[in-house]
Amino acid sequence: MPAAERLAFLRRLASLGRRFRPLTTDDPHEHTGGADGVRSPLLGYVVHGAGGLHAPSAHVRVVQRVELLAAAGRVDVAQVDAGAWARGTGTVDPDVLLVQRDAVPEADLDAFLARIRATGTRLVAEVDDDFFTDAARERLGRAEYDPGRLRSVTEVVRAAAVTIVSTAALAEAVRGVGGRPVVVGNQVDPRLWTGPVDAGDAGEAAVGDTRTVHRVLYAGSRTHGADLALLRPVFDGLVAADGLPVRLEVVGVSDEPADWYDDLPVPDDAGHYPAFVRWLRAHAARWDAAVAPLVDEPFNRSKSDLKFVEYTLLGLPVVLSDVGPYREHAARAVVVPNRTGAWRSAVADAVALGGPTPVADEHVRTQRLIGSDVAWERALGL
Q1: How far apart are CA 117 and CA 132, in angstroms?
Q2: Within 10 Å of residue 142's Cβ, how many Cβ atoms?
Q3: Cβ(125)–Cβ(179) under 8 Å?
Q4: At what angle are helices 147-159 and 106-119 packed, to 10 degrees?
């Protein structure tokens, strides 16, 4: 982030903190504010994982936002054990309780919701995928998704004052089961995605690299096998205008690497999301472009555009499927229909660009970093 942008960002964070007292004790439950007698609002959050070790979605959608909100002096924060809180044995009594996805175990669900009603605590749900439509539930069932988890996320959404979602399509799915959605687009943590990169994290892979091939990045979770399959004919014998071959390099996505793409293993010490981001940024120089394919199906139409944001912050030109969340970026990136010829042409052109478009970079750095607005806090009711 340029110095001027970083200074503006820090000033925004400081301005957000002026209405609340900062956290001054290790026990948020005991915090009562400063000399003016004003106690900071206490935001409790329920996510999978503990001790800072969480799934990537929890980091992106909740944990990093919570940390920066607390650092700015907006609120006191505490992770809440849903079962202990439901039984009344928890150590905190939050003003707002934020639950991500299915983080309330089904065994504790009824007691948890009963205590919400009894205490009048403001409950806010957060979801970033479609758990609600018939097509989505069928897909999740095929993936052996526990039915109890589906019940948990649905009942929390129905009970919540609002449900924070990432897209308008997902808002419709939430509304369909009786939820009250508020759309807040994904933003990422500037502490992870901007500033200096430790090149040592890249090892030899990105040091002294001489181009004999154009590498194109596709990074994602193991749930994107069908999306990856779209790219097989795209990269079959693909050659750029300069005569160099264009090769897909996959990070994550598939448990069974194939010979038509290269697999870049993630080291064990980069499995945790913040460490993974640092590792990915340190490798950015090895790639000439990045791709985000999506099969055009109902479940994918509710997904967010997070890959566009992350790839842009890696400094890469991006090629996106003309599906769901990516359609809004047609003026910022290369958005193509899921036809092999269109994809081959777009990827071959992208490797020559040298970086994201200026309009994509400006959009991400001014609107998609945490702290650029207060929409999330407003949705929480803070």
Answers
A1: 23
A2: 8
A3: yes
A4: 10
The CA–CA distances, whole Å, from 12 to 18, 217, 243 equal 10, 33, 47
User: 113: number of CA atoms within 13 Å, CB side?
Assistant: 18
pTM: 0.86
Asked if residues 313 and 188 have their Cβ atoms less than 8 Å apart, the reply is yes
From residue 174, alpha-carbon distances to 133, 168, 331 in Å are 9, 10, 29
Report d(CA 117, CA 72) in Å as an integer: 31
Residues 89-136 pLDDT 10s: 988 899 999 999 999 999 999 999 999 999 999 999 999 999 999 988
Tens of pLDDT, residue by residue over 323-353, are: 999 999 999 999 999 999 999 999 999 999 9
Sign of CA dihedral 285, 286, 288, 291: negative
The DSSP symbol for 21 reads P
Residue with tokens 């503990």: 50
